[in-house]
Fold this sequence. Notes:
The complex is a heterodimer. By secondary structure, chain A is an alpha+beta fold.
Amino acid sequence: MAITMTQAAEQHITRHLAHRGHGIGIRLGVKTTGCSGLSYVLEFVDDQQPEDTVFDCGDAKLFVDPKSLAYLDGTELDFVKEGLNEGFQFNNPNVKEECGCGESFHI
Amino acid sequence: MVLLQISEPGQSPEPHQRRRAVGIDLGTTNSLVATVRSGTPETLPDNEDRHLLPSVVHYEADQNISIGYEALEWAGRDALNTLISVKRFMGRGTTDIKTLGDQLPYQFVSGESGMPSFRTSAGDISPVAASAEILRALVERAESALDGPLDGAVITVPAYFDEAQRQATKDAATLAGVKVLRLLSEPTAAAVAYGLDQGGEGVIAVYDLGGGTFDISLLRLSRGVFEVLATGGDSALGGDDFDRAIAQWCCEQAGLGSDLDPQQQRQLMSAARQAKEALAEQESVAMDVLGWQGSLDRHTLNTLVDPLIDKTLRACRRSLRDAELDSDEIDAVVMVGGSTRMLRVRERVEETFKREPLVNIDPDRVVAIGAALQADVLVGNKPGDEMLLLDVIPLSLGLETMGGLMEKIIHRNTTIPVAKAQDFTTFKDGQTAMAIHVLQGERELVSDCRSLARFELRGIPPMVAGAAKIRVKFQVDADGLLNVSAKELTSGVEAHVEVKPSYGLNDKEVTRMLRESYTHARDDMQLRALREQQVEADRLYEDLSAALAQDGKVLLNEKEYHCLEVALDDLRNVRESSNHREIARHIETVSKTSEDFAARRMDASIKKALAGHSLDEIDKGL
């Protein structure tokens, strides 16, 4: 069971955490909504939950709850720029199909 | 493929529910758009990584429009069709434009509602339409950066912008197809960018030195509300003047005359600007321009620019006086505008306010960043309790009442949005219409206030004076825009007006109006008292004359009649005097003298009402 992230993702997470001024890392998760059933969660973390698995990726810590981990195993978090748009992207090997926009998915 | 942003704990949006909001700094020289991504506010660059968009629009005869850097290239070749600094014309009337300077290359034509338009080869273009083009370019940039349509924008305006100028800005946004979440004053936005709104209470000075304008604003923050205490500045002083001072020095050093051609002048100015910017980093800089080689050090630079900085500091001290503050009562100083990068400016500002100014956010972007933070909250991307930022209205709003007096409905520095109603009544018997004159200002007399709008409430059912009940409601929305309605309560007839005044006030005028209201406070009070007594005297005169004409001969003997006539004449004469106590005394006398007459009229009318009815009928009636 492992989750990784690219250097670009790590850099941006560190920057956003520094700007925010508090927080211990980033939470990756999955919740059941959306047009294809599941959608991603990407949030700042102020308090670790006892059931969280923690991944150390360089300067940034990733927190994942056990239920989400089942869907996310093997995922690489990336930070990409597409023209003027920029943001984070989950490269998740478990995904079978996505809705057109990729905001929700199916396993 | 959608790209995700980091949310606050528990705030991850549902798919397709992401809200896109931006802050827009619609500037005189340059404009910017910013947004909050993953909790960090940043300005958005164009495809060539340029964050600033010059506020310039160029119109061609074939309707082809270019904006920003592209438009700027036309400025030299096609000045008439290249609109720059349109912000200076927003919400202004044709008469105001004349005072803005004759050196403008544009041809103005009177447009709708007295607002002037620019005559270009693509037709007549209003300042609002040109601003809309700039907004549209920024919105397009934001939509491509955020990958979807915007839910709304916060647009910044100078603190001294009045109703007309704010409305013009809002109209431009509507024309550009962007929803305005709120108009925010520029100094407030800068304070928000530094998180000063989170800090509780205090007085904040915002020192804004741009390329061509200087503004100083003093804000008081208390319980999440920013109140503008004073504004001041110079609309013709900025970084360009610093460059000019350096260029002048170069000319003297190089022994160059004043007969430089435009090309040479441009070279000289750009060399001056480069040297100025280099001296922010190093102690001295080598210059090589128009065949002259030399060096400029910080000390020389300081002596060149000090007189200009002194001018800004004088305006700062004036604003402090206006706000009745000492420099040591300032809790924070925020620097805005590219020219505040100069170390000398920072030093001198620190000396004046006895406080190190805040400089760590890029001074060109700080206003847009504050607006983006506010937009993010308003669109609901942040937990609700974080910030509810309010603005206040800069001048009182009210209406004209009898005697040419200004009745204030909403007082200056009231937080917005706000709605207030007041009941008025008719002055004459059988009055069926009422003129409502909406005013802005602090003075007591209508002639000393600014007229915003006029409208009429018609169809009031004829009643005796004072019986109709007319409720006038003033509503100011979160953007500072005014809506006035009047309703007669017994009949329900209604009329209203949205205030879109045809001309504007500048910061100097607002300051002037405020100052005058202080210096004339005593006179105004006297005048108000006088007008009030005059109105009362007129009312009494009308009522009593009418009553005398109707029943005087029947109910009074000759002596009594004569006595009242004399008293009325006296009243009429005294009314013209300027002594309100004297008028009040006469009103008292006339009222007393006519008491008996009034009682007899009452008796007579009761007798008349009862005549021909039996006691029985009256009992039943009770």
